[in-house]
Amino acid sequence: MTKDPILAPKQIEFILNSKKKINLAHGSVRSGKTVCTLYRFMQAAYECPDSNIWMIGHTSSTIYDNAIALILQPKAPGVPDPLAIFRPFCTWYESKRELLFGDKVINTCGVRDKGSIGLIQGKTFSLCYCDEMTLYDESIIDMIDTRLSSPHSRLFASMNPTYPSHKLKQWIDEGVKGDNNYYSLHFTLDDNPYLDQGYKNRIKNSLSGVFYKRNYLGQWCLAEGAIFDFFDRAVHVLRRPPAAAEYFIAGIDYGTANAFSCVLLGVSTGRFAQMGKRWWAEKEYYWDFKKTGRQKTAAEFASDIHAFLEPYGVRGVYIDPSALAFKLELQRLKIHAIGADNDVDNGILKMTSEMQQGNLYVMDCCPNLIREIESYVWDPKSSEKGYDEPIKKDDHAVDALRYAIASHRVSNFDEDDYYRKQQLNMRPR
C-alpha cells in the first residue's frame, strides 16, 4: 500500500470548504479536481434528505466514464483510491442510467447542446454534480441554476478554464468578491502529487497557445493568433510516411458553395513498431469550383472519392454530419461513411496535441492542407463576443483532417476485438 496520503492537500481544502450553494473546482487537466468534487458530492448525497439528486455530463457516456466509473471501479493495488469508501454502497443500473447509493437514487443525463434543456427543465435539484461544466451551453447552465431551488440545494462542479467572460468565470468572480452563494478553488498540475514529472512534461510539451494556457496553466484566457503556431514544415511535413500503415481512414469536408476536400490518413497503432502510435495525411483530394470554374454534383464527388480511396481499403470515412445526402451517396458505393464528431474546440485540441507529441504528420503531396494549417487562426471578433471560433475561411482540408482525427480511436490493443464489441453494442471497459 502507498504511504502517501489518499487525498492531496488541495483536494482536502476543497472538501472542507465547499459548503456554499455553488462549489466549483477549476484549473488545469489532471490536477485532482474530479476526485475531490466527487468525494464531496457523495458526502452531500449521504446527507441529502431526498433523492432529487442528479449527475450531469457533456454527454451521457462522459458522465459515466469521467465520474461514475471512478466511484464503481477499483484502482490497481497501491494506487490511492479515496472514492473506495463509497463503493460498497453503490449499484449502477445501466438501463435506467441511475446510480443507487444506499437508499438514494442518483439520476444522470448528458446535455450536449441547447436541445437537451428539456431533460432538466421542470426538475428540482437538491443536489447536482456537473462534470466538464464549461462545455455546457449557457442556457443549460442557467437552467441548472434555476433548478437549485430548495434551501438545502447544492451544486458541485469540475471544469477546465475557457474564455474569461464565461458564465462560470462570472460565478467564480462573484465568490471572490464576497457573494456567499459561491465557493471556488483553482487547481494546477503541481497540486496533484501522484503525477510524475515526466507526465507533466509530456502534457506541457503537447499543448500550445490557448490550450497550453488553459489546460496546463489553468488560466481563463481568450483564444487569439495562429491555432497551429508551432507548425514547422521542416518537422511536420514529410516526403515519406513515418511508418508502414496498418490501415487507412479518411475525412471529408463536403462543399458546394465552398471547396470540397477529402484527406486520406495512414494509421500505425504502434503494435508492430517501437515508435508508438503514428498517423499522417497520406494524400488529399481538393476541388475548388471557384478556381476550376465547374461545380460537381454529389454523385460526381462520390464517384471521385470512390476512385481516390479504392486502392487503400479504407476502414472508415468520417464526414461532416450535416452532409446526409452525400453520406448516402458514399454508402451506395459501399464506402463505410460515418458521421464525424464536429466539436470544433475538442477536435482542434486533439490535432494540436497529436502534432506536438510527434504523432501526426502531413505528406508533402498535400499542399492545400499544409497551406490551410499555416493560415488557420482564431477569429478575434468571436473572442470579443466571449467565445472561441476559428475564422471560417480556407479551412476545408483542415476540417476534413479534424473530422478524422477527432472521430477515430487509435489504440495498440486488439483492434478486431474492439470493433467486434462495438458491433455487439458493448462498451469496452
Main β-sheet, in a few words?
8 strands, mixed
Tell the overall outline. globular
Q: Overall mean pLDDT score? A: 89
* Unreliable stretches covering 5 or more consecutive residues: 412-429
User: What Rg is obtained from the alpha carbons, in whole angstroms?
Assistant: 23 Å
Helix content: 25-40%
Give the spatial strand order of the biggest sheet: 3-4-5-2-6-7-1-8
Number of helices: 16
| Alpha-beta content class | alpha/beta
- The number of strands is 15
Alpha-carbon distance between the two ends: 25 Å
Strand content: 15-25%
Description:
- The chain is of the alpha/beta class and 429 residues long.
- Helices cover 36% and strands 19% of the residues.
- The chain has 16 helices and 15 strands.
- The chain has helices spanning 9-17, 33-47, 60-72, 138-147, 167-177, 197-205, 209-216, 233-236, 289-292, 298-309, 324-332, 344-356, 367-375, 380-385, 396-407, 415-423, and strands spanning 22-27, 53-57, 90-93, 98-101, 104-110, 127-130, 154-159, 182-187, 237-238, 247-253, 260-268, 278-287, 316-319, 337-339, 360-363.
- The strands form two sheets. An eight-stranded mixed β-sheet has the order 3-4-5-2-6-7-1-8, with helices on both faces. Strands 9-15-12-11-10-13-14 form a seven-stranded mixed β-sheet.
- The protein starts with 8 loop residues before the first helix and ends in a 6-residue tail after the last helix.
- Mean pLDDT is 89; it is low at 412-429.
